[in-house]
Design goal:
Layout: E1 8-12, E2 23-27, E3 36-45, H1 48-55, E4 71-78, E5 90-93, E6 96-98, H2 104-107, E7 118-119, E8 138-142, E9 146-148, H3 155-185, E10 192-196, H4 200-211, E11 216-221, H5 227-233, E12 237-240, E13 254-259, H6 269-274, E14 276-284, H7 299-302, E15 307-310, H8 316-329, E16 335-339, H9 342-353, E17 360-364, H10 366-370
Parallel strand pairs: 10-11, 10-13, 11-12, 13-14, 14-15, 16-17
Antiparallel strand pairs: 1-2, 3-4, 3-8, 3-17, 4-5, 5-9, 6-7
Helix pairs in contact: 1-9, 3-4, 3-8
The structure holds NADPH dihydro-nicotinamide-adenine-dinucleotide phosphate (NDP) and zinc ion (ZN).
Length: 372
């Protein structure tokens, strides 16, 4: 039985050596502030970052941690300064819980890059409280990082869009518009996009690049087992990067490559750079374990004057824009629904770590599990 509002309940990991042994645990929420909203959670997607976090792949757990940052639920409490929401609204929360909202980055819709950003779990608030995520009965978040969900999206599809979808939408929107404008100046209508790593983020990237109207979207995967699915998602072509010589046969192909792989251990970055057109860009949203580094030689850039860049999450404005596009174009993320329990949390994290998700798990049945 949930004991909200004094305590929340969630499936917590106490130590990264126990990363696949989550336990149903009660914990105190953060102090309630004037702009905060409490959400009773209905479902939550399972992101590759949840796996990296519980494994301690980036840094150690800062406390007992409940992961999950693809949250959908119902507003059950609003602070006195909340203006966007009322009790009962269906809303979503992604990977960010707070920023200063006052710096140059925040004011230009770049909240994920705010120096005072607090992420949805395993991240410290100014008072030292460690944020707790969405494999839980409730979550408490500043309203700026709570997103209104249009009626046309099922909750289990909206969840994965809150982190995975937004994280790929932001660079696709920003970079591709720039390339499209430049190409147009030279009379070229097409923009060729490559999406690397067809997991949760990669699958949504293929779908969102198509929804944005791009007509040459390639899925790049290590093997060929995802080819049929990628084409059904809308990809215009499929490339197996595990095949010898793939890069040689795709020289001067891509304007933009978005790397969505959860590890670069099996990727040859020199090969990816060599497939870019003149001044093409390779951008990585994929975040492998901290002990992995990009290894590229200067010679890989010089032939095409290409660049490497990166991107983190997306802004509130971009999330709202993405949700409108998803409704307008009827985008449906490829989701496997799994009722939440200690066993299922451990199973989905294990499968996600092995790259076995086809393509996004969404944990469901929260009201039964937490008796909310
Ligand atoms: P998934 O596990 O769903 O998918 C990852 C994909 O990466 C796999 O399907 C696989 O694609 C590929 N892959 C797996 N292992 C390797 C390997 N050793 N070498 C090369 N490719 C591999 O993860 P998500 O889509 O949820 O997340 C992807 C990455 O994005 C993670 O690192 C995550 O932490 C990060 N992320 C970053 C964010 C940001 O703001 N930048 C936000 C959210 C997530 P295939 O089989 O097709 O090769
Ligand atoms: Zn995520």
């Amino acid at each position: 039985m949930s004991t909200y509002p004094e305590t929340f309940q969630g499936y917590a990991i106490d130590n990264s050596t126990n990363w696949n042994k989550s336990k149903l645990t009660s914990y105190a929420p953060k102090a309630f502030e004037a702009n905060d909203i409490d959400i009773e959670i209905e479902c939550c997607g399972v992101c590759g970052s949840d796996f990296h976090t519980v494994k301690g792949n980036w840094w150690e757990l800062r406390s007992l941690v409940v992961v999950g940052h693809e949250i959908v639920g119902k507003v059950v409490k609003v602070g006195p300064s909340v203006t966007h929401y009322k009790l009962g609204d269906r809303v979503g929360v992604g990977a960010q819980a707070r920023s200063c909202l006052n710096c140059v980055r925040c004011k230009r819709d770049n909240e994920p890059y705010c120096k005072a950003a607090v992420f949805t779990y395993n991240s410290a608030y100014p008072d030292g409280y460690i944020s707790q995520g969405g494999y839980a009965s409730h979550v408490r978040v500043h309203e700026h990082f709570v997103f209104p969900l249009p009626e046309g999206i099922k909750s289990e599809h909206a969840g994965p869009l809150m982190c995975g979808g937004l994280t790929v939408y932001s660079p696709l929107k920003r970079f591709l518009e720039r390339v499209r404008d430049t190409n147009k100046k030279y009379g070229e209508e097409d923009v060729t996009v490559g999406i690397v790593g067809i997991g949760g983020l990669g699958s949504m990237a293929v779908q969102l690049a198509k929804a944005l109207g791009y007509t040459k979207v390639y899925a790049l995967s290590r093997g060929d087992s995802k080819k049929a699915d990628a084409l059904k998602m809308g990809a215009d072509g499929f490339i197996t990067t595990g095949e010898k010589g793939w890069a040689e046969s795709h020289q001067d192909t891509f304007d933009f490559i978005l790397n969505c792989a959860s590890s670069i251990s099996e990727l040859d970055l020199n090969a990816f750079l060599s497939t870019l057109k003149f001044e093409g860009t390779f951008s990585s949203v994929g975040l492998g374990p901290a002990n992995e580094s990009f290894s590229v030689s200067a010679g890989s850039f010089i032939g095409n004057r290409s660049s490497m860049t990166s991107s983190g999450l997306g802004s509130r404005a971009e999330c709202i824009e993405m949700l409108n596009l998803v409704v307008e174009k009827g985008v449906i993320p490829w989701v496997e629904e799994v009722p939440i329990s200690e066993t299922s949390v451990n199973e989905v994290l294990t499968k996600c770590g092995k790259g076995e998700a086809r393509y996004r798990y969404c944990l469901t049945n929260f009201h039964e599990a937490f008796q909310t």
